Amino acid sequence: MCGIIAYVGDQPAQPIILSGLRALEYRGYDSAGFVVRENGQWRRWRASGPVAALAAKMNGASIRSGCGLGHTRWATHGAPTEVNAHPHAGGQDEVMLVHNGIVENFSRLKKKLAMVGTVFVSETDTEVLAHLIALCYAGDLVSAVAEAMSRTEGPLGIAVMHRARPDEIVVARRGSPMLLGLTDRGRLAASDAAAFAGWTDQVIYLADNEIARLTADSHQVFDARSARVDKVVTTISPAETAAELNGFPHFMRKEIYEQAETAASAWRGRLDPVTGAVKLGGLLDCQERLKNCSELIIAACGTSYYAGLYGQYLLSESAGLDARAEIASEFRYCQRSYPAAAALLAISQSGETADTLAAVRLAQAQGLLSLGLVNVAGSTLARETAAGVYNHAGPEIGVASTKIFLSQLAIFNLLALFWRQLHGRDRAEDLAWAQALVGLPDKIRQVLALDNRIAAIAERFCHYPNWLFLGRHFNYPVALEGALKLKEVSYIHAEGYAAGEMKHGPIALVSPEVPTVAIAPADRLRAKMIGNIMEVKSRRGPVIAIITAGDEEIKELADEAIEIPPTLDWLYPLLAVIPGQLLAYHAACLLGRNVDRPRNLAKSVTVE
Ligand code: M6R
């Protein structure tokens, strides 16, 4: 949450920082700010609202300075007003600071600082940190940052300037991501490589508690004890920073449409369609431990958690593994000890979700093997877990996750096959499974071709304020995900339920004003879903059924039917999720919502 970009070099900082802020806006978009030091003065602009509002405010300003900081905010402490926007000044304006994270002991520190005469102008925790750095400064900004960090608690990623050192930027991280970008014409720092697009592909990932000093032609990295650290420079692929709409009106739509390719990329080079054999290079080193794994805890948040729930069903049923999905924010506070042979699989698109990382650290503290299923290469999760699997799905920019959910389900299929093969299970079954996977991208395209029909259904129902999503077993996570998508982007209230739970409460909501999306493909629970559909219909609730093509029986019962191609029972979720994504997308567009940047959300939830 919150995006940071900093630049020091021989080019004007303004275009570099603004382009970085636009790329980082998915991390938070309720206010933005920019500062440079020029002719002995700070020049700072801040605006409530998106980066475009900041850019409009700066329009016409002639800024030549090649050293500055930018920030796009997701508010934690204090309303999204201009005065609460970063950069924040510290001391008597000696310091300018941008911050991603939370100063957890800010109220205690604020009281102490107020006692020595500090006057606060904002409601933020960040301002406390700015004043603290100013107070700790005795000629060396790196030492001041180190000292201030030692007095604060909570995750942080920061970039700081001091007026006595106008050509130097100091950045640091503890929990929140921060990486450096190297160019011939200066140094960059940002919370995400996306901010470097068009400027550099040479990056250095800072580790926790590292601090870096940047000047136009140098960078030095220090560890927590102020010792110099030699860092590896990594070349990132253009795919890791690409964020182009390519003619689509929104990233969400583009990413929904990418899903046939997303699925194919998940198993490209990993699944042999002729033998059904699965090779997962990222798990090679821990195969023995995986073979003896007694239980697998799957920890994640939001959409990634729903994918984990699917993984729980799939791995326990097809691979005989004792798997259990846990909401990471709950798991991290669960005071239970696990057997040494257990493993934890953390799932995260961003690889920066604070609760998911905390779950990993908890498992590691108990000596468990930690695995990651992550999309962003080089993210904290990717670096902190012992082994893992990448999604290889390219950047997901829309705040509402779409293609990554599908990719996570695809990878659970690989993991299930992998585990089966580790235990010498029946290869003939695996072959049929592998072939069904390989045929899936075509089926995904067939579902995407229903877009106009789904748009018409969205138009019919988008003014209904409450929806229900029902599914059973493998499609239960799809029901949860469908409801979450609709809530997130259209702000329509929706509940996802295991259809069998209907009678235990939610049926009270059914009425002609509450549409129910029933995920009812021709799997082994179809008849049970028909029962649920009948119950809704007998209470005059409108039903939008997601069914297998040609299922005339359900088609006659439902008010609207979306027909998806036939596949294996456990692969239906990879098709059935798409109509829900498109319903949410179209409803949001019809209601005039900001599809890619829904209110109150951020793509990467780096605070608890
Ligand atoms: O980056 P992660 O997968 O760890 O993110 C987890 C959730 O924050 C995320 O899935 C969230 O629920 C999305 N907004 C869903 O669309």
UniProtKB/TrEMBL annotation:
Alphabetic keyword roster: Aminotransferase, Cytoplasm, Glutamine amidotransferase, Repeat, Transferase
Please give the biological process terms from Gene Ontology that the record holds.
Answer: amino sugar biosynthetic process; fructose 6-phosphate metabolic process; protein N-linked glycosylation; UDP-N-acetylglucosamine metabolic process
Q: What class of enzyme is it?
A: transferase
Where is this gene product found?
Cytoplasm
Q: A single Gene Ontology molecular function, please?
A: carbohydrate derivative binding
Q: What is the protein's name according to its record?
A: Glutamine--fructose-6-phosphate aminotransferase [isomerizing]
Q: Identify the EC number(s).
A: 2.6.1.16
**Keyword RNA-binding annotated:** no
Which Gene3D superfamilies has this protein been placed in?
Glucose-6-phosphate isomerase like protein, domain 1, Glutamine Phosphoribosylpyrophosphate, subunit 1, domain 1
Reactions it catalyzes: D-fructose 6-phosphate + L-glutamine = D-glucosamine 6-phosphate + L-glutamate
Pfam entry (one): SIS
Organism lineage string: Bacteria, Candidatus Falkowiibacteriota
Is Transcription regulation included in the keywords of this UniProt record? no
Q: Which residues form the SIS domain?
A: 286-425, 457-598
Principal place where this protein is found?
Answer: cytoplasm
Q: Which GO terms describe its cellular component?
A: cytosol
Q: Glutamine amidotransferase type-2 domain: which residues?
A: 2-217
